[in-house]
């Protein structure tokens, strides 16, 4: 299977002269192969109900099946669950009659492709500079990349023992052992599974009630490193990065933010009740993010499409915090088709 097709956007007037934006579509041979595996399971399952499908599954060669599915598989994103669904249509090759339609709510294939790209960029950083500083994010976007990094570590390909980390943000008021804290998230999804040293991990301290003191402390940590070598980011539907919400200025340093209703709504699925979602967070500021030598933003799904389009080709404005990335010298965007769907062609 070949690599992903890379689409290099022309650096026209809409894209900052220095910004190197690589958008990577996920329609590629290796994805189709992964979908093929899932489709095999789907067809097997559906064949109990659909006679004609079972014939298609049994009779068609692998290449034939792939060619039907190439245009019959359509990804969509459910913002409620965070699941990317593949709607699948199976056609009778002779009559082109629609045989069945189903939503395959398991979308590992799509998420895997993006995650592999993001993980590869991080792995390259760790290999080329073992003592690197990795800027890390939480949320659903980076989880797949973390899984890949864990797999590669377990396979002996990566050594994190000299790495340090700088996490973007933390909820105010949650202790590190609260299962909704970002410290907990990072341990669960990455740190507990690799050989990174606890003393090299940095994340704002959500239990520190002294906001000014905590922000100054964290800025000191970022300054001492001279910024991250690589900063991984997700993006909010409103264009936030870290917890830097839309506003009238780009805030340079680490700051304590009041979360917007849009962010509270997006995060409440993780809490038992909406009232439990913290209202404040400490976040690395825009200055800290821009200090990173390279920024990698992972965006997935249609509900990110507007934010991605504004980030890449809209005006640079604190109303869309991520738009500042147009000025970054080494900005890599890894996105699926849905997240790129509002880009001007
Ligand atoms: C997380 C963070 C946030 C998320 C953003 C997207 O540390 O800083 O900016 O990256 O809210 O979240 P997901 O990936 O869950 O869509």
Fold and architecture overview:
This protein has 345 residues and is an alpha/beta fold. Helices cover 33% and strands 19% of the residues. The chain contains ten helices and 14 strands. The protein has helices spanning 29-46, 51-59, 62-72, 108-128, 143-154, 182-189, 211-225, 261-267, 286-290, 305-313, and strands at 6-8, 22-24, 73-78, 83-91, 98-104, 133-136, 164-167, 169-171, 201-202, 230-233, 255-258, 280-283, 294-299, 331-335. A six-stranded parallel sheet has the order 9-7-6-10-13-14, sandwiched between helices. Strands 3-4-5 form a three-stranded antiparallel sheet. Strand 13, helix 10 (305-313) and strand 14 form a beta-alpha-beta unit. The longest helix is centred in the middle third of the chain and has 21 residues, at 108-128. The site of fructose -6-phosphate has 14 residues, from loops.
């Amino acid at each position: 299977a070949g690599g992903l097709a890379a689409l290099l956007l022309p650096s026209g007037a809409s894209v900052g002269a220095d910004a190197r934006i690589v958008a990577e579509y996920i329609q590629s041979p290796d994805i189709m192969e992964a979908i093929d595996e899932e489709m095999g399971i789907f067809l097997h399952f559906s064949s109990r109900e659909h006679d004609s499908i079972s014939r298609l599954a049994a009779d068609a060669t692998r290449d034939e099946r792939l060619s039907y599915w190439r245009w019959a598989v359509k990804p969509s994103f459910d913002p409620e669950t965070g699941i990317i669904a593949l709607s699948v249509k199976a056609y009778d090759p002779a009559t082109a009659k629609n045989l069945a339609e189903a939503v395959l709510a398991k979308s590992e294939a799509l998420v895997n492709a993006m995650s592999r790209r993001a993980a590869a960029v991080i792995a390259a950083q760790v290999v080329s500079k073992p003592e690197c500083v990795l800027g890390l994010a939480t949320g659903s976007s980076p989880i797949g990349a973390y899984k890949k990094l864990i797999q590669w570590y377990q396979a002996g390909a990566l050594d994190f023992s000299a790495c340090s980390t700088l996490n973007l943000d933390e909820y105010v008021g949650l202790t590190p052992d609260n299962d909704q804290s970002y410290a907990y998230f990072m341990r669960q999804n990455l740190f507990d599974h690799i050989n990174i040293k606890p003393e090299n991990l940095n994340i704002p301290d959500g239990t520190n009630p002294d906001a000014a003191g905590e922000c100054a402390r964290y800025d000191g940590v970022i300054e001492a490193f001279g910024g991250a070598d690589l900063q991984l980011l997700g993006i909010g539907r409103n264009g936030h990065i870290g917890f830097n919400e839309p506003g009238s200025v780009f805030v340079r340093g680490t700051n304590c933010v009041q979360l917007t209703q849009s962010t509270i709504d997006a995060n409440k699925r993780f809490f038992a009740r909406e009232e439990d979602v913290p209202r404040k967070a400490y976040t690395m500021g825009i200055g800290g993010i821009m200090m990173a030598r390279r920024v990698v933003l992972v965006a997935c799904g249609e509900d990110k499409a507007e934010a991605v389009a504004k980030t890449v080709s809209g005006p640079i404005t604190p109303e869309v915090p991520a738009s500042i990335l147009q000025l970054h010298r080494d900005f890599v965007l890894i996105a699926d088709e849905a997240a790129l769907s509002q880009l001007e062609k």
